[in-house]
Amino acid sequence: MDAFFQKLDLDGDGPLYLRLKAALAEAIASGRLKPGAALPAERDMAAALGISRVTVRRAIEELTREERIERRQGAGTFVAEPLTRIEQSLSRLTSFSDDMARRGLKPGSRWITRGLFKPSTEEVMALGLSPGARVARLVRVRLADDRAMALERSSLPEDILAAPEIVETSLYDVLADAGVQPARAIERISACCLSEAESLLLGMAIGAPALTVERLAYNGAGRVIEVTRTLYRADVFDMVAEMTF
Fold this sequence. Notes:
By secondary structure, the chain is α+β, with helices and mostly antiparallel strands. It has helices at about 1-5, 15-30, 40-50, 55-65, 95-100, 120-125, 170-175, 195-200; strands at about 40, 70, 75-80, 85-90, 105-115, 135-145, 145-155, 185-195, 210-220, 225-235, 235-240. The mean pLDDT is about 85. This is Phage tail protein.
């Protein structure tokens, strides 16, 4: 393994830790560093490359945050197993929790915001709220087997979701229990790059590609009862639509 690191090409422009990160990422992507392979200790890697431990540590931290490398308590640092790509159907109105459970993954959430708030101008317009109305706002990182998969921001009228704190996993299960679940939805999909704040929440590199899905959900009477904007990791999700002729 020391010989492998001695042959890494760190030439180029930019900070040395980013060049090391790029070289390691390329080695992982090409299969020269295989999933499950143990990496040397930081001091040994630094010695083999002739660079500082601080530089090695910063590169490893970046790759760990992007889930290319994982640290195992008491065991060391290893090349992470690649994430299995997920096909997200655009044909049916389903919840993230149900989608993950059908794939044998454990759904979860890391909550950022959950409560009733004064609505923003955008929420008033999208939800058709009257003056003085409040909005239930849910912001969370969606997890599958404890891995961050998406960043989801949902807004609903207070009369549709009066107690947002009861939502633990599936919002749609809570709405169904209350008899106010959506009947149909319109979704708009676009590509974007993650901001610094978004990348930190998803454990991705700043500017990493993502898929934005903006959803307007309607009840049976045609009223908008949910506005959701979800950022899906582009390295994990494929959006699939079924069409018939």
